[in-house]
Amino acid sequence: MKTALAALTAVLVCSSAAQQDTIPPEDGPRGMIDTIFVTGNEKTKEYVILDEMTLKPGIVLTPEALEFDRNRIYNLGLFTRVDIYYDSLNAVRFLLVDVRERWFLVPFPVFGFRDGDAKRVYYGAGIIHNNIGGRNQKLYAAITLGYDPSFNVSFVDPLLDRKENLYGRASVAYSRVRNKSEAEAQLTGDYDTDQFGVSATLGKRFSLYQTAGVTAGFQSVTAPEYFPGRTVSTTGKDRFIIGTLMYTYDSRDLFEYASRGVLAGLSLTQNGFGEGSVSYTRYAADLRGYLPLPESFTFAMRWYGTLVSGGEVPVYGHSYFGYGDRVRGYYHDVDEGENLMLTATEVRFSLLAPRTFKVSALPLPEAFAIWRFGVSLVLFADAGTTWYRGEAISLPTMLAGVGGGIHFLLPYGVVARLEYAHNNAGRNEWTLAFRGAI
């Protein structure tokens, strides 16, 4: 069977006008799918690929569905190339999914600038296995030195029980984190906290798009000395249990740079259950939508918000702009509060739709010689604010920026964004960031 599939793959590839990211042309073959073959998956279980696809036997093929399914397979992070061909043989109409696998066990160096600041250098090493047993299980371990040194180990099994569609995750992490609050630094000086956490997640995948889960964990935060706000406990040591309920609906085609689909992520996290001084609840919602428009345009929008209730929220539990979440136009400005709200919109024009290329000029193994690229021009508008409980939200407190730029989708899911923004304080800024788009 493997030999026959390999031969069939070779014939289809040779007869195709485009050998990377192949989709049927608009006047190409259409019709009902009778069966699906998968080839090139030397280690990956076939069901790992098939479970990500919306196309099934008995469904009529469309170019949009085929493109969507190829991107969903890319989202697995297991393959450098995914091609899907439609054809018929002896009256049997079939899809052939042809993949090229990455190296799954990879040691890697770690180097970067924490929060995009060139003065905050971190470095280290790690190792990852992306596909234990061919079941898409992932084991990750890394240690970093320099700014905010850390160590973490995590294991993810997206299919603990295939019959019940259960998934699981476990992690252990330690980090020494520099205080992020500029207000706290002005009052008491800069300081580091030692943070240790362990957690486990059990969830269920209800459909291709819907998942829900529960996480239980333990968190320890130790400050060098007690000041009000640094920790809730007057000992300078907070120890508390964490519990999170979460729900996600995710129909995006390509996670790192979606062009169609919807993401709705909702979570409720209880920090502390009466066993210590910490006791507050955080609610979060992350809503994103992507609408393809004519002439290679895409409209993208994100709304994100997080609120707290309950007891005192320590400085390390505050919400910030200027670190993970940012408002373009105030990219490096730190804004702090207990609560946070962000809206971002983009209109993109695709100069080069994401496609793969084989780099034959370099002496690389095939797993590293197949690279994927895409280029888009972007116009954007962002707005956001942080606030404490009891404060009113008003337009003068909002951070806002508009601008444009160019985005590059690089190999292994990296997105590089070169952007220019003008903010509502009259200031201009250029930024080069390596982070996913909205």
Describe this structure in words.
By secondary structure, the chain is mainly β. It folds into three domains: 2-101, Roll (Ubiquitin-like (UB roll)); 105-339, Porin (Beta Barrel); 340-438, no CATH class. The protein is built from five helices and 21 strands. It has helices at residues 2-15, 46-50, 63-74, 182-188, 366-369, and strands at residues 35-39, 79-89, 92-101, 105-113, 121-132, 137-146, 150-161, 166-178, 192-205, 210-222, 237-250, 261-271, 280-293, 297-310, 319-321, 335-337, 339-358, 370-387, 399-410, 414-423, 428-434. The strands form three sheets. Strands 4-5-6-7-8-9-10-11-12-13-14-17-18-19-20-21 form a 16-stranded antiparallel sheet. A three-stranded mixed sheet has the order 1-3-2, sandwiched between helices. Strand 7 (150-161) and strand 8 (166-178) form a beta hairpin. Mean pLDDT is 88; it is low at 9-29.
